[in-house]
Design a protein that fits this description.
By secondary structure, the protein is mostly helical. It has six helices and five strands; from the N terminus they run ααββαβααββα. α4 packs antiparallel against α5.
């Protein structure tokens, strides 16, 4: 009986020691080490790839934002504010009513097949809107010039970037709405176009938030 109690006590004590050691190592030391290495080597990415403007954090390089006008009475969705470059459509899984700068609070795809009627209706309506919004006097947009990312959402619904083709499609409209020269806005797009990672991974892209921050600075003359 005594041997049984003694063995049980030793096992419990061994288990408790293992729990304490693993808690300290895995729950304290390891997270501190990983955090320290991350902050030391790439602090920008470790802190969420924050983007700042005028000393304030205005977003992340990794999460897209909407640029819409205030919601009017009777409207179900806000109209886009056409003085800004617009991101990809964000047909995701839910709405965020707390921080209205962000359209989505959940990340995810629409999961519609290519022949799904609802998806076809979305794309058709989005294409018509892109053509209407970006056609300016003397420069109508051809349906053939509308790139795929202008009418489809990304797999996450949070894509922060658009293709250079979609950015270029918006140049004349943005220039007209902000009383800028087309060449000035084209230069902004060129300056904020990132190439393929390592020269061959992914596609060229334009971060919409960074581009719009630069646009605001140009408009304000700063």
């Amino acid at each position: 009986m005594n041997n049984s109690v003694g063995n049980t006590t030793r096992l419990l004590w061994a288990g408790l020691r293992a729990l304490l050691v693993l808690t300290v190592v895995c729950g304290v030391l390891y997270p501190l080490a990983v955090t320290g290495v991350a902050q030391g080597i790439f602090p920008d990415k470790a802190n969420g790839s924050e983007i700042t403007a005028n000393g304030k954090v205005v977003g992340s390089e990794l999460i897209g934002q909407r640029y819409d006008l205030p919601l009017k009475k009777g409207q179900e969705t806000s109209a886009p504010d056409l003085k800004w470059f617009q991101p990809r459509p964000s047909n995701g899984l839910g709405n965020n009513s707390v921080n209205t700068q962000y359209k989505l609070i959940l990340s995810g795809a629409t999961n519609r097949s290519g022949d799904n009627k609802e998806l076809i209706d979305w794309v058709t309506a989005a294409k018509a809107a892109v053509i209407k919004d970006n056609s300016v006097p003397g420069h109508p947009v051809s349906p053939a010039d509308v790139p795929a990312d202008a009418v489809t959402s990304s797999g996450s619904g949070l894509d922060p970037a658009i293709s250079p083709a979609y950015a270029q499609l918006q140049v004349r409209r943005v220039a007209e709405r902000n009383h800028l020269g087309v060449a000035q806005v084209e230069k902004l797009v060129d300056q904020h176009t990132d190439g393929r990672i390592l020269g061959f991974v992914g596609e060229p892209r334009v971060n919409v938030l960074q581009l719009n921050i630069a646009l605001k600075q140009l408009v304000n003359g700063t």
